[in-house]
């Protein structure tokens, strides 16, 4: 009985600690044209991210997600919220503006297991090869990841 109450209280605490973050989809931002802002974000497991279409013509689709996590895709011009429970790196893009490197990176957890580094980097490079503008953007975002030793 007492343990049950404790677990319920703990559940409320965990829920209260989960944060909701916002990423804007913009025609122009601080990092140039056709851009997610912020392009890199570090969150805790269980947090959610809402993608907000501030301008029309954008949506978001995951490119690579950690093992065990589900891919996602939003509707054009619709706000979209995804909750991320699995630690690791998520790379995503806006399909209509992939050629302009409209891409973003999410780090879930304080650090990312360095064992996954080569695979994650290779997946990001596959996506980056399809960009013809803002070509440095994805590399700059990937450099902000904190890897474990
Ligand atoms: Cu776009």
Automatic annotation (TrEMBL):
Keyword Zinc: no
GO cellular component: periplasmic space
UniProt binding sites for Cu cation: 58, 94, 97, 102
InterPro entries linked to this entry: Amicyanin/Pseudoazurin, BlueCu_1, BlueCu_1_BS, Copper_blue_Plastocyanin, Cupredoxin, Pseudoazurin
SUPFAM superfamilies tied to this protein: Cupredoxins
Signal peptide residue numbers: 1-18
Superkingdom: Bacteria
Species of the source: Nitrincola iocasae
UniProt keyword list: Copper, Electron transport, Metal-binding, Periplasm, Signal, Transport
Taxonomic path: Bacteria, Pseudomonadati, Pseudomonadota, Gammaproteobacteria, Oceanospirillales
Cofactor(s) for this UniProt protein: Cu cation
Protein name: Pseudoazurin
């Amino acid at each position: 009985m007492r343990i049950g109450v404790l677990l319920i209280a703990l559940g409320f605490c965990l829920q209260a600690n989960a944060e909701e973050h916002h990423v804007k989809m913009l025609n122009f931002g601080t990092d140039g044209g056709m851009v997610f802002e912020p392009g890199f974000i570090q969150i805790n497991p269980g947090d959610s991210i809402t993608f907000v279409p501030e301008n029309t013509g954008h949506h978001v689709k995951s490119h690579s997600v950690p093992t065990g996590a589900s891919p996602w895709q939003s509707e054009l011009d619709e706000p979209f919220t995804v909750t991320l429970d699995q630690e690791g790196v998520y790379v995503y893009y806006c399909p209509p503006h992939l050629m302009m490197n409209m891409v973003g990176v999410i780090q879930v957890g304080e650090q990312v297991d360095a064992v996954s580094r080569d695979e994650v980097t290779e997946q990001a490079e596959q996506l980056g090869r399809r960009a013809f503008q803002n070509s440095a953007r994805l590399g700059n975002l990937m450099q902000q990841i904190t890897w474990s030793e």
